[in-house]
Amino acid sequence: MTDKVDLLVVGGGINGVGIAADAAGRGLSVLLCEQQDLGWATSSSSSKLIHGGLRYLEQYEFRLVHQALAEREVLLKNAPHIIRPLRFRLPHRAHLRPAWLIRTGLFLYDHLARRVSLPPSARVRMAPGSPLKADIRECFEYSDGWVDDARLVILVARQARNHGASILPHTRCTGAQRHQDYWRVTLQDAGTGRVRQVQTRVLANAAGPWVGRFFKDDLKLQSQNRIRLVKGSHILVPRIKDDGYAYILQHRDGRIVFVIPYEQAYSLIGTTEVEFDGEPGKVSISDPEIRYLLDTVNDYFCAQLAPSDLVHSYSGIRPLLEDNRLEARQVSRDYRVELSHGDDQAALLTVFGGKITTYRRLAQAAVNHLVGLFPGMGRPWTADSLLPGGDFSDLPILICQLQQDYPWLPGDLVARLARQYGTLTQGVLQDCRSVPDLGRHFGHGLYQREVDYLCEQEWARSTEDILWRRTKLGLQFDQAQTLALQDYLAGTGDAS
């Protein structure tokens, strides 16, 4: 038997799940497939920022910055558990960018879109004891947002499921053929090998770095656009300053490097921009990238870092829309959505480019393209829709309420659960009245109850899914603890 849907989305990154959620919420029947875990590639390898893109102003990307700044406010409102304000400092060195240029850029950044929740930019003098080198006497401050990017993907996928979409991770699209006004798509489960056929009126190619390969290998079509693959790498080191600020550092080559507070004990440093022509799923940081990031930080901070200070690193591939600029850093982060179809020809919706901050706007624009095919579908709705777990007004108040409801839970665990799940924490802890009710403790506050919840409600299958995407506890787990969790997930561990 062949399943029938209105829309089949290929790709479970942030753009794919965003399109699935928007379309399902407007009344379309939707199925999404992803060859690996949701958000396992580009969407979990970002700089963890919801931002307008201050440096894009130098490239005159005013429309992109305006849209991103407007989306920043939407996302801060809709996902207060996983997205929160972050204050940045840009150390001033006149030989890199003059003060007037920075002031002009920040004025535009403050005014290109309506600012509701964040304070304006400012110029500040460095006080004694600053973590920056003595020759840096002033900084420019501005605000943006921090995001748990991998959890954003999961919550948008849950939003899609809540509106009736079928979400199928670890399911590869192995082929699609047009049959007049519909596509016949073949899907294969990566675990069981089971093959199923799905008939869909619209096929959406949201495969990110694989968007061109999907055209060529699976659709047997030629894309009219070219994607430029650019590798971005990040490193994690022990926290190098405790002032609560993120820093944006100007490199001599004109690029910028972020230093961002991360998971209470670390600093996240990135990103690089390196041309890439390999397999997008097999990417890692290189020694020159490590040196580039460390040299940039050491040029600004009193505390000096060495390669031995690295705790963790990750790399991701940005699928940028080719615009024939010479340098990767100059390529636009804007997106393009295209719909191709004709009389009695099934529709193909394709997403090129994009950035995590504008995922919701991209998804809305993509689904708007389908109005002519589905004239009875609903209106755009996601701008005013809280993501699952985001129905609260203040995170500290939520943490206090959870501490009152679960006084037997350690305070640091309550805080982590609130930051990760928001009001969904109640579902994680349902019917638990004491620590033993949480089941087996795998380490660092990860209990059997939470592991089971992630498998049942958030599509988790592996230790990597749980320790690096659903949580960030992989930074603390040792090999023995990871193996114990792996055994449990495989059904061989002791659940007592």
Main β-sheet description: 10 strands, mixed
Q: Predict the CATH topology of the largest domain.
A: FAD/NAD(P)-binding domain
Question: What gap, in angstroms, lies between the N and C termini?
Answer: 42 Å
User: Could you tell me the mean pLDDT?
Assistant: 94
* Helical proportion, percent range: 25-40%
The number of helical elements comes to 13
Q: How many domains would you count in the coordinates?
A: 3
The low-pLDDT segments are: none
How many strands?
A: 20
In CATH's first tier, which class of the largest domain applies? Alpha Beta
Estimate the global geometry from the Cα principal axes: globular
- Radius of gyration, CA atoms, in whole angstroms: 23 Å
Beta-strand percentage?
A: 25-35%
The quaternary structure here is single chain
Class per helix and strand makeup: alpha+beta
GO molecular function: glycerol-3-phosphate dehydrogenase (quinone) activity
GO biological process, one term: glycerol-3-phosphate catabolic process
Keywords: FAD, Flavoprotein, Oxidoreductase
Domain Alpha-glycerophosphate oxidase C-terminal: 382-481
